[in-house]
Amino acid sequence: MPIKIPSGLPARDILDSERIFALEKPEAERQRVRPLKLVILNLMPKKIETETQLLRLISKSPLQVEIDFMKTSTHEATHVSADHLVKFYENLDAFKDNYYDGFVVTGAPVEHMPFEDVDYWDEFKTILDWASTHVFSTMYLCWGAMGALYYRYGIHKVDYPEKIFGVFPQYLQDEYCFLTNGFDEINLQPHSRLAGVNENEVRANHDLQILTWGPQSGPGLIATRDFSEVFALGHWEYGKYTLAEEYERDMAKGMTNVPFPKNYFPHDDPKLEPLFAWRAHANLLWRNWLNWVYQTTPYDLTEVPQLRAEKKLGTDRSIRHEPGGPRQDDFKPFVHDGYGVIQG
Q1: What is the pTM of this model?
Q2: What is the pLDDT of residue 182?
Q3: pLDDT value for 50
């Protein structure tokens, strides 16, 4: 929640420089409070599992949040009952006149395919166009992040010969960033993908900033400068056993480009219970995002199109911290800790 301070307090300038959100008394007294409105585009095959993962994170916020669920109309889901979709999901036509504080776009198991070969690619682009005028801030996950970076910023997808699979260390790039406020210098993020993004293209785009980066997994969290779009390449939303279930699924399919999940099972022994080592940062990221949306979104959501057109989304910060780079001392944490959890 924002802190309320007396008007003109000298500490305001320092707080602003560190991107700590502070409301002076007259601003706070003018605030009107309402529930946040979120819509989730769920592209994952196991709809209910993904719903649970996301709602678990969203529910940790002290804010009241109203949730709608969106589906594509050009792809028929096969891992969930039609009754569930009819009861809880609508396609874009039902939402086109609505405005939302936040939008969540999940991943999808199609990262190995060219974007244009995905059967709902054209619809995906139409949904993103709608969101650009009807949503204050969007959180994209895994393939959703790759697709959005490609369509909206021309960032190309990079296909990998072998899946990045497991839990990997990510280095914090900017300690004052609002979204990663409170993150440890090294945080852990699950990854399960056969592709990534062209890191050089991301760094060359002034509208984008890399917030976490790993020596094996590359960028883990990217955002626009105004935080109107957030791109998580990994899966902080995953539950404790999700990677194990995916590994069993991929092995049953006979896939040969899927390695044993790294830094997941103690001593790399799949008979042992996996370590849930990313939960704290997952909760922190989502709390930070919802908190930022709550503090900066207009009370009247119909103002979003004009604010976007005028590039006035988010808080006005005169001091901008450029993201730093990875550590320069070649420090490799947890190469061997006797427990076999984090390697490299």
Answers
A1: 0.84
A2: 92
A3: 86
Q: Are strands 100-105 and 89-90 parallel, antiparallel or unpaired?
A: unpaired
Place of tokens 């949503």: 135
β-sheet bridge partners, residue 135: 100
Which positions are annotated as active-site residues?
A: 142, 235, 237
Q: How far is CA 341 from the centre of its chain?
A: 24
- Are 189 and 281 a contacting pair, CB within 8 Å? yes
Mean pLDDT score, 313-333: 51
CB 212 within 8 A of CB 175: no
